[in-house]
Amino acid sequence: MTETDGTPAGKGALDTGNNPALRAIFGEDHPLISHFGLEVLEIDKGLAVVRLPYRSFMIGNPETGVLHGGVVTTLIDSACGIAVFTALPRLQPIATLDLRVDYVRPAREGASVFGRSQCYRLTRSAAFVRGLAHDGDAGDPVAHIQAVFMKIA
Asked: pTM score, two decimals?
């Protein structure tokens, strides 16, 4: 994947169109996604790339303008969940069982943050995901993540 401004090459925002199920999970109908302005940029089987635009109400340290770590965690958790949904053979409820976030550095002031997650293993009851968050350069991540999601029957 080639990135310059953080947008995957050849990809645009996910078009949820007239599909209410997709809009409820990935789009503007989902309250959390709508509130934070999350934008799904890329989606494929087991893969999601989500953009979190910089907004002043998400600042954790007013002196530096750095985003609150909880906001970045929300981005990462959302990207992981979307990656799991796309890996499942059928749509079913899931829940975050474990989410490890290793922060490497703060996101740059004023920059959007991108979460890229890949569901690399599905079992009967769980989904395993890994990924990262970056602010325009995936080679210089803000955080690395590892997660486990529980499938709810």
From this structure: 0.83
